[in-house]
Description:
The protein has helices at residues 6-9, 12-25, 45-58, 116-122, 157-167; strands at residues 34-41, 59-67, 70-83, 86-94, 105-112, 140-145, 148-153.
Amino acid sequence: xxxxxxxxxxxxxxxxxxxxxxxxxxxxxxxxxxxxxxxxxxxxxxxxxxxxxxxxxxxxxxxxxxxxxxxxxxxxxxxxxxxxxxxxxxxxxxxxxxxxxxxxxxxxxxxxxxxxxxxxxxxxxxxxxxxxxxxxxxxxxxxxxxxxxxxxxxxxxxxxxxxxxxxxxxxxxxxxxxxxx
Length: 181
């Protein structure tokens, strides 16, 4: 089923389906996967700001904050992304990291799993990125696949965001951030 944002961001449901098929091809089986969000990376700050305006019409703002040295915004979509039986409720939009060149496009999906350690232990032959596995707020692991990345974490992003907002953990985007360069 197509989504109203597909013409702007690219076909989202096929992206999700392709990554899930590639995940299955690795041998990882996750019955009824919970894909809590997908991520689109903007190539420029101008594109990021333009897409923020588009996404504001398509969803409810959950948070915008500085993560990894650049703004990232998350919206709860009014219309879920439907990829077969999988429903994706949120979209994350990442601004480019300063000093890096990024290609615009759909970048990753994130799945909620019961245990990161068990997933890594069950599939030791797979090249998981485990650098964030010990993060205290939202630990995750990643797996690069031909069509993009799948990240695995323990709680839905909307729940993590609600906690960060409630505890004041969100790092605000500096007021002059978009005036730089």
